[in-house]
Design a protein that fits this description.
The protein is an alpha/beta fold and 276 residues long. 36% of the residues lie in helices and 22% in strands. The protein has 2 domains: 179 residues, HAD superfamily/HAD-like (Rossmann fold), CATH 3.40.50; 87 residues, Putative mannosyl-3-phosphoglycerate phosphatase, domain 2 (Threonyl-tRNA Synthetase, Chain A, domain 2), CATH 3.30.980. The strands form 2 sheets. A 9-stranded mixed beta sheet has the order 5-6-4-3-2-1-11-12-13, sandwiched between helices. It starts with 6 loop residues before the first strand and ends with a helix.
Length: 276
């Protein structure tokens, strides 16, 4: 297939990329989101956010696409989205799910074990009161409740020193868990779960359905590295404080600016470049 004719598939992180890190607004990217919808380009959220959170943003934007939730713990695909039957199970609301992670309940128990062993100073999203969660996340009450609806992970607010965090992470690892640092919090998932594996699997489904495609990845933090390594065109935005994470991927292109303003500019340039 001619390079110019390849279909674009966009995989994007949310917090700090498509969404403003403080306000969680995508409105500065509305211009290019409208172009994406008009061109029927799949826009796949690939985030630590929960199913409930991602579904809400999809509904607000006006799309219904596959989602990679809780840092790659599961892929949710609208029923009949792909022509070929999936190796999945029904997940309600017209979705099929492909799961890679253990249940949130199992993960919470293992986190508690590791906390008792190490004396880790931290709070999980599930044990915070709604008022506390709203305060630390800047989310509304409704949005905070969606953030607590975790199926395959737990998010923590660390109060530990670097040395204490290392000890805690080692205790998690001995129990088959991984800690992934995001823009503001740490997400605890089953060992072996990452965004990249989910992107590879979902990209293969798109290729089988559409032929040769060109995958784009947009992120801003360490938990995006596996996703960025798995796509054809990886892009790293700056953090909101102007800093930039060091991610060692040969094809990686660094982008000036942060959040939905930079996201809008980048994707507009990509659509122009590929004639969309």
């Amino acid at each position: 297939m001619d390079e110019a004719q390849k279909r674009l598939i966009i995989f994007t992180d949310l917090d700090g990329t498509l969404l403003d890190l403080k306000t969680y607004s995508y409105l500065p990217a509305l211009e290019v989101l409208r172009r994406i919808i008009e061109a029927k380009i799949p826009l796949v959220f690939c985030s630590s956010k929960t199913r409930a959170e991602q579904q809400r943003y999809q509904a607000d934007i006006g799309i219904r696409e596959p989602m990679i939730v809780e840092n790659g713990s599961a892929i949710l695909i609208p029923q009949n989205y792909f022509a070929k039957p999936l190796q999945s199970r029904p997940a309600g609301d017209g979705y099929e799910v492909i799961e890679a992670g253990d249940s949130a309940e199992k993960i919470k128990k293992l986190i508690d074990d590791a906390r008792r062993q190490t004396g880790a100073r931290m709070k999980t999203f599930s044990e915070m009161s709604l008022a506390e969660l709203c305060q630390v996340t800047d989310l509304s009450s409704e949005a905070a409740l969606r953030a607590q609806e975790r199926d395959y992970s737990e998010t923590i607010l660390s109060e530990m020193s670097d040395a204490e965090m290392i000890s805690f992470v080692e205790a998690l690892q001995s129990r088959g868990l991984s800690s992934i640092r995001g823009s503001r919090f740490h997400t605890i998932v089953s060992a072996g779960v990452d965004k990249g594996k989910a992107v590879v699997l979902l990209a293969a489904m798109f290729r089988e359905e559409m032929g040769d495609v060109r995958t784009v990845g947009i992120g801003d933090s360490p938990n995006d590295e596996a996703m960025l390594a798995a796509v054809d065109l990886p892009f790293l935005l700056q953090r909101f404080d102007g800093s930039r994470e060091h991610i060692d991927i040969a094809r990686l292109k660094t982008i000036d600016g942060a959040g939905p303003v930079a996201w809008n500019r980048l994707v507009c340039q990509l659509l122009d470049k590929y004639g969309v």
